[in-house]
Write a structure and sequence with these properties.
With about 270 residues, the protein is of the alpha/beta class. The chain folds into three domains: about 190 residues, Rossmann fold, CATH 3.40.50; about 25 residues; about 45 residues, no CATH class. About 45% of the residues lie in helices and about 15% in strands. The chain contains nine helices and seven strands, in the order βαβαβαααββααβαβα. Strand 1, helix 1 and strand 2 form a beta-alpha-beta unit. Helix 6 packs antiparallel against helix 7.
Length: about 270
């Protein structure tokens, strides 16, 4: 099959998060003998060597500069800008985080390939890439998949419910907008991919679609092989980026609620 893949996040090296999941999907498809055309964006942190290494895994690679979101100006200017962004979100239905990084160059590259009639499937790696996919995409490509990674509506709702939202007032305002956004973009796709059964239930309720597939995140057992011997002791490690609210919540819960219970049975346990 000829596959068109879209990833606004440059997927190499696969060092965790979105790049890790995206690259391993790409790697799996390539190893199964499929042809891959990948459109992606690069930041200043992406080297020419990274691009050269990624080319080894695809048949056609389009790399374009990622547009940054300027926050320059005084407090009043920033406040007015945020209010305008929220108003735009309410009117046009697309979150500012999606619009702000949209690349016209990548859009042109994607549109040319969608209408070429050469592709059997299209995959959006992370829902943010849906912005590049037109409403009538299935006229040109029969199988159109969005690998959601994480629901923006679900994440926002969870943070509000758990009391860990960074800006709860703002998040309560945008929550119904996020719900409307996910309901709208899901209609473009023939299939949805999620990471958990909870996400499957939520996306089924939001989208009404039955073609929802659960593909959980995993561990690269070549990079992290199972130990052949027990090293002894009772040491726990939490591994995750601490600029993500979900990870902060999980780490706090582990330290405050779980570790004391573990230490009741294993007093020497450390985290």
């Amino acid at each position: 099959m000829n596959n068109l893949m879209l990833s606004a996040t440059f997927p190499y090296p696969p060092t965790g998060g979105t790049p890790e999941r995206t690259f391993n999907f790409l790697k799996y498809l390539k190893e199964q003998g499929h042809t891959i055309s990948l459109g992606t964006l690069r930041t200043s942190g992406v080297s020419d060597e990274d691009i050269a290494n990624l080319k080894d895994w695809v048949d056609d690679l389009g790399v374009f500069p990622r547009r940054g979101n300027s926050q320059a100006g005084n407090a009043l200017v920033k406040a007015l800008g945020k209010a305008q962004r929220l108003a735009d979100f309410a009117i046009n239905g697309t979150p500012p985080s999606v619009r702000d990084t949209h690349s016209e160059a990548l859009q042109t590259w994607v549109s040319e390939r969608i209408t070429s009639g050469k592709f059997d499937a299209l995959t959006c790696e992370h829902s943010v890439n849906e912005v590049y996919v037109p409403e009538d995409v299935q006229r040109h490509i029969p199988v159109v998949v969005v690998n959601i990674h994480s629901s923006v509506y679900g994440s926002c709702a969870h943070q509000l419910d758990a009391g860990i939202a960074e800006k709860p007032l703002r998040d309560r305002l945008i929550l119904p907008l996020l719900k409307r956004y996910e309901q709208r973009y899901c209609k473009k796709f023939s299939d949805l991919v999620v990471t958990t059964t909870d996400d499957e239930d939520q996306m089924h309720e939001l989208s009404g679609k039955d073609a929802i597939h659960v593909i959980p995140n995993g561990v690269d057992l070549e990079a992290f092989p199972m130990r052949t011997e027990d090293p002894g002791g009772h040491s726990l490690v939490f591994n995750g980026a601490m600029d993500i609210l979900a990870n902060i919540d999980a780490a706090t819960f582990l330290a405050k609620d779980i570790l004391p219970r573990v230490q009741q049975t294993y007093p020497d346990a450390t985290l």
